[in-house]
Amino acid sequence: MISNLVNDFQTNEQFYLSSAYSEAQARLDFIDKFFIALSWDVNHDTQKNPYEQEVIVEKSADSTKRADYMFTLAPKFREPKFFVEAKKPSRQLKNIDDYFQTMRYGWNAQNPFALLFDFEELHILDSRYKPDPKSVLDKCYKRFHYSEYLDKEKFSEIYYLFSRESVANNSIEKSASELPKPKGKAVQKGLFAFSTQSIDESFLDLLDEIRLRLAKSLKKNNVYLDGELLTETTQRIIDRLVFIRFLEDKDIESERHISGYGEKGNAWKDFVNDSKWFNAKYNGIVFREHNIIDGSAFKGPDEKDFADICEELSHYNSPYDFRYIPINILGSIYERFLGKVIHSTEKRVTIEEKPEVRKAGGVYYTPQYIVDYIVDNTVGKLILNKTPIEISKMRFADISCGSGSFLITVFDELLQYISIYYQERPKEAKKAGCLEKDGKWILSLKQKKEILLNNVYGVDIDSQAVEVTQLSLFLKLLEDETLATAHEFDVMFKERILPDLGKNIVCGNSLIGTDIYSNNLFESSDEEKKINAMDFENAFPEIMKNGGFDAIVGNPPYGANTITNEDTYISFIKRSIDLLIKKGLISYIVPTSWLSGVRFIKIRKLILENFEIHKIINLPFNIFKDCYVDTSIFLFEKSKVKDNQINVYSYPKKEKLSDLSAADKNFSRISKGSINQDENLSISTNPLLYFLKQKYQTNQFISLGEISSSTIGVLASKYNISESKKKNFYDYFVGNINRYTFDYLSTNYIDLSNHKEEYLSYFFNSKKIWIRRIINRQDRIMCTIPPQNFVVKKDIYSFSLMNTNLREEYVLAILNSKLISFLYLNSSAISTKDDFRQTTLTELRNLPIYRLDLNSKSDAERSDKLVNLSNQLIESKKKLINSMKDHDRTYWESRCNSIDRDIDKLVYDLYGLAEEEIKIVEGTNE
Fold it and tell me: Cα–Cα distance between 908 and 917 in angstroms, integer?
């Protein structure tokens, strides 16, 4: 087909390059057919359902409004992979206006490439960069003339980047990852006229900058405004401006408002007057009358400050296009925006992180693919095969909703399912009030409002978060509306366009009820207000009267709950038990600590008694940017089932994810009933680990805690430390330990005169094994035998064998083996903050040690071998450390590695591992 198109164009080139040949005709004659040749269903010959089409073709004659083509992939028909902007061949493609327009489409949708195409030429633009008229002409990644389409090598570049098959195989992402980025001092100094900032980073920077400018200007003119009032006021102003730009870009408003502020003399007054008009038309929390902003006594910001902000945000000057910024991306921007507040003194205004955000090390926004997975497996499963009337009676919630990312996705899931339902049933669609447009039955604005009010509920303790969640849901509600549909709604129903979400999205504390106020625990009303206690029975009376919510989703806060003294996410899991109806579903992304930590035995028991566990997916470390924490997704059903199968999957810890498709394809299963055989009720989600744990609970094994006494070292800051030995002072170890070795840095002494003899016995009177609290970067537990008795610091655990025929060197070899590190790392509630994994004394005590029968010749021989190898490795490590010559170091390093491998082999044999199981432990089973 391509050769025919090229020959046709070449034969009639003079006509096709004339001004008489239109863009619309070029699309029909050449551009449509070009992408059909790349296997895209441009004419929808196969994909008949308007809601399930991979190529969205803009039919409007106004080419400045929307991209001419948007290419997507099933089943994510609303997520663009790339855009194509079409032009007529007579137009010179390389011009600032067309480049800027095309790059805006790609950049706002977070696509790395966008295409400018008239068939005569194809320009592939690098849309990773923030569009800037000064530099857009430098952003052409590749350029092709139609004569090159017949060149096999040249055309393959196009085909293997933009054909449907290639795009489905991530060709765009792979190619983008290989593109060079600006480097060197010139970038740092800002000498480049472009930025590689993503849309979310760029827009967040803009919002932060505007907030600070607004706050300073407002404070100057209204000195009574404190930090809390400034935070609320500036956010409401920004929310209004963002919402107005959204209405403008989506063509829901026929005129441009923001660019016109100040034309009548005063930009601030124009904005306030517009807000009153918008409130009368739209309603909603954004434009609702505000005591300060809309008050007659309020002076507002300086005219120039506000006019400059409006000019910067206007469609004329801004690179942002709200037609193509995904609503969930706006949510991620606002999530981080909400992590900061305005601090105000008489002379100064600053933006500061909230204390809880500072403590947590930042705001960690849940990636959209995780949100999608959780919502698909809860809301998606529950509404499957149900009618819209049946769905209207269902209630879905996020009780720690933040900026509303989960609720946006819940709402979208409902809209997509119900839209497809009616598309397949035209008679029902017409009767239900759907609108017919271009042969497609679409949900009316009234229907979408009813879905939002009936089905979507949220709670957050932060009033600003509640406002943003409502704003996000309003944007989602209006996402596919136009001036015509909004006007039609206004005329037909005589009611304001946006619903009142005050009873759906509530500000309150999901974990603490109002009965806490009756105990007079608070010294001030400010403390009382900060707790913001709430009763679900009062906030959602009808829902609770009918048994609760059908599904609860989200990413609850992590960290200590100061009221209950337990991890906050655990409190949210507990709360959901009371809030779900029978057979209701809950799915959260939370730390993995609840699966096995000793502190979490009670919650595991509660979960096992009240929930049917459908899925557990252990995720890699890098889910949240700059936050290394073990997390997992769980899916529970509120059902008291005595025994069932749990689907489990663990991703490799360093894998980079963009979806969770591998999990559902590779689930392993464990029996819930078998968990109850475990004293700690720990839930092993690694299939091999699950098998081994069952095996190691037999009489053939004994726990480390049963054969030893143990203690954590002392917190040195609480004791008197001296460099000289005095009465009641004891040798104190100052140094680090590694596997089979230690670094003894200096001789120090510690005063333990106030301690009883039994406490001192933990450090003296017997041979010891030391275990370091921090695990090394190779994910190995580090143990050694000290040369003498010491008091140790708090990052070392001291174990003394007692009443056993096991030798210290034998236990040391087992504890330093790969198998024991594998068991610990996959079953312990380890800490991973700052990328340093840690052991806990309680969980080390649970490690299984092979119980030797020294009357057995084979056991006696294996014990002797391990003791011998352990001593050899101790001596070889010493020689390695003391080696000065490179040749000697190389030799002893090789010798140590060889002995280490021999020890691992003996331990695998001792613990009865098969070859395939050894490969899993070694990480070589892929």
Answer: 9
Mean pLDDT of 244-272: 89
Instruction: Report the pLDDT value the prediction gives residue 643, as an integer from 0 to 100.
Output: 59
Tokens of 192: 């480049």
Helix (H) or strand (E) holding 82: strand 82-86
**Which residues, including other chains, have CB under 8 Å from residue 461's CB and lie 6 or more apart?**
400, 507, 508, 509, 510, 532
Identify the architecture of domain 376-509+549-687 in CATH. 3-Layer(aba) Sandwich (3.40)
Tell me which amino acid residue 617 is.
I
Pick from 130, 292, 325: which is nearest to 218 by CA?
Answer: 292
Q: What is the DSSP-derived secondary structure letter of residue 378?
A: I
pTM of the complete model beyond 0.85: no
**Which pLDDT value is given to residue 926?**
42
180 CB neighbour count, 10 Å cutoff: 5
Identity (one letter) of the amino acid at 275?
Answer: S
| Weakest-pLDDT range from 183-197, 347-361, 706-720 | 183-197
CA distance 308 to 288: 25
Which of 51 and 4 is assigned the larger pLDDT? Answer: 4
**Res 569: pLDDT:** 92
Average pLDDT over residues 531-540: 93
Arch. (CATH architecture) of 702-918: Alpha-Beta Complex (3.90)
Is the separation of the CB atoms in 365 and 332 below 8 Å?
A: yes
Cα 870 from Cα 8, distance rounded (Å): 80
Q: Which residue from 599, 603, 676 is spatially nearest to 641, judged by alpha carbons? A: 676
Q: What's the confidence (pLDDT) of residue 515?
A: 83
Q: What is the DSSP-derived secondary structure letter of residue 629?
A: -
Half-sphere exposure of 514 (CA within 13 A, CB side): 7
For residue 75, what pLDDT is reported? Answer: 86
Q: In three state form, how does the secondary structure of 242-272 look?
A: HHHHHHHHCCCCCCCCHHHCCCCCCHHHHHH
* Percent composition of the chain: helix, strand, coil (DSSP 3-state, to 5): 45, 15, 35
Find all residues with CB under 8 Å of 813, minimum gap 6, and list them.
Answer: 866, 867, 869, 870, 903, 906, 907
User: Half-sphere exposure of 491 toward its Cβ, with a 13 Å CA cutoff?
Assistant: 6
Helices (H), 317-444: 327-337, 355-360, 368-375, 381-383, 388-391, 405-423, 426-432
Domain ranges of the chain: 2-181, 199-360, 376-509+549-687, 702-918
Express each pLDDT in 500-522 by its tens digit: 999 999 999 999 988 887 766 66
| 403 and 468 Cβ atoms separated by less than 8 Å | yes
Amino acid at 832: T
pLDDT band at 832 (very low <50, low <70, confident <90, very high): very low
> What one-character DSSP code corresponds to residue 138?
G
Q: How many whole angstroms separate alpha carbon 806 and alpha carbon 851?
A: 8
DSSP 47-72: --STTS-SEEE---S-TTTS-SEEE-
- Average pLDDT of the chain to the nearest whole number: 86
Nearest alpha-carbon partner for 118 in 18, 4, 3, 41:
18
Q: Which fold has domain 2-181?
A: tt1808, chain A (3.90.1570)
122 bridge partner residues: 117, 144
- Gap between the Cα atoms of 684 and 704, Å rounded: 19
Return the HEC string of 648-699. Answer: EEECCCCCCCCCCHHHHHCCEEEEHHHHCCCCCCCCCCCHHHHHHHHHCCCC
Contacts 24+ apart (CB under 8 A), 441-444: 442/480, 443/415, 443/418, 443/419, 444/485, 444/489
Who's near 106: CB < 8 A, 6+ residues apart?
Answer: 82, 83, 112, 113, 114, 125, 127
CA distance 246 to 250: 6
> Among residues 790, 782, 878, which one has the least CA distance to residue 837?
782
